[in-house]
DNA sequence: GTCTATACAAAGATAGAC
DNA sequence: GTCTATCTTTGTATAGAC
């Protein structure tokens, strides 16, 4: 056997790669079909529309990002390093996949002013995951009241790292600088908590 | 007289507004023409291509952003506040113009994988301006050796603020959080400089 | 400089056979 | 489930007149 991936998987691969490399709106359906070596009818039979395909590809990518991130958290020895593991995960995630210009989720969000319900929810799921997990991890380090605030700041810094990649900064350079800033933010928050009476 | 703006200006206005509100690639030329109340031939006579029009619109917008930022720097009383004035300028800039989904320059960069030479240069000019001016201002506060590093970190945080807007955070909320993080980064850099022997 | 009308290419999506 | 062939709409850009 050792058959090659199904047409459905090839479509998801092609859509994800092209969306990551050059964006959705500049990628015609034809380009996805050619890369996946699949006919138009097959795409529409499986996914209904181009946006449907993109949505499914993003869902799969988000699940993989989630897995990578969780692995990095488990590997981190201390609560503080678990909180900062999001930067390790970012670097690992990006080195593992097809090179992308920056963040695929933010990229699709930026070029889709009126997404359908499913796509909109998938895009929001990325932000939700970031905020939710960082808040959980933050709660092990600072006062519960302050955890949401710290989480939002870390998402801001993480998002800044992604933006710097779009501006042309090397991934590892941007990640290192983001991690540094995040470390300071973290210590400031933890310090103010523990020093308060 | 009090004649209305020329067709060229109306085209620039329309292109800038639509690029800011919904992005370039989803905005057909027809939509720009309709908003500007101008015929196709006029657009191509002035700007050659759609990308030429977008490029000129971005150049004008960058010049206005530059002016706003400089005003905020002049108004700031201390060197530290001058360095943080980029956040004041961001808020002021965005409230003064047509509502945009996030940063027009990063938005166009994100959806244009292969820009022409002029557009590419215009997009890069935004990042150059940020780095260059922040480095100048940083040099008044920290060791000259450290100024570029501090400037890069501030650009990262500033870019993070923009990204948070794309994620759905309110502009003023994101700006305030960015400013807070930037203030800490700044104090850490200034502190390490002055405390070193 | 600006208009009307239109050329030409490319897009997303579907029909019908196998 | 997958293919070939095609339909329809929309996109950018131009021709030629005023």
Automatic annotation (TrEMBL), chains A, B:
PROSITE patterns: HTH_TETR_2 (PS50977)
Protein name, UniProt field: TetR/AcrR family transcriptional regulator
Pfam family, one: TetR_N
Organism: Arthrobacter pityocampae
Source domain of life: Bacteria
UniProt domain HTH tetR-type: residue ranges: 5-65
GO molecular function: DNA-binding transcription factor activity; transcription cis-regulatory region binding
Keyword field: DNA-binding
